[in-house]
Amino acid sequence: MGFIRTFIARVTRTQLETAKFGFYLLSPIMVMYYVGLDTDKKFNLPGFWPDPSTLNQIPKEPHEIQAEIARIRRARLEKRRRLEEKARELGITEDDDVDVDNQIPENQESLEDGVVRETTHLV
């Protein structure tokens, strides 16, 4: 304990300020150095990133692009067939949807050029 007390008593203000400056300057540098070293070993979480072989691969060659477009079209056609079959089972037809869209409300009338005019009926 006596050694520390004599050491502190011998340190001048200039030496103390120089030591503080060195500490303030070197502390962030040492932290950055520690964090930057071997980040793969320190911060690696096994299984965090997916395996590259399981990811979707973007086609780059022309024949790969054509094959992908054909696959998408087949999938879209199959989905359309399933939806049409389900609509037939439920009794929904395309004509039903068109009639609903083309109906004019009771308070409007259609003119020859396709313009709809609102009418008021006094009873």
Descriptive report:
Residues 92-114 are annotated as: Disordered. Pfam families: Pet100. The chain crosses the membrane at residues 21-37. InterPro entries: Pet100. This is Protein PET100, mitochondrial. By secondary structure, this protein is mainly α. Among the domains are: 1-42; 59-95. Helices cover 62% and strands 5% of the residues. It has five helices and two strands; from the N terminus they run H-H-H-H-H-E-E. It has helices at residues 2-10, 13-36, 39-43, 62-90, 94-102; strands at residues 108-110, 116-118. The chain has a two-stranded antiparallel sheet. It is elongated, with a radius of gyration of 39 Å.
Please describe the structure with a list of short key phrases separated by commas or semicolons.
mainly alpha; two-stranded antiparallel sheet; 62% helix; 123 residues; elongated; 5 helices
Q: What would a concise description of this structure say?
A:
The protein is mainly alpha-helical and 123 residues long. The chain has helices at residues 2-10, 13-36, 39-43, 62-90, 94-102, and strands at residues 108-110, 116-118.
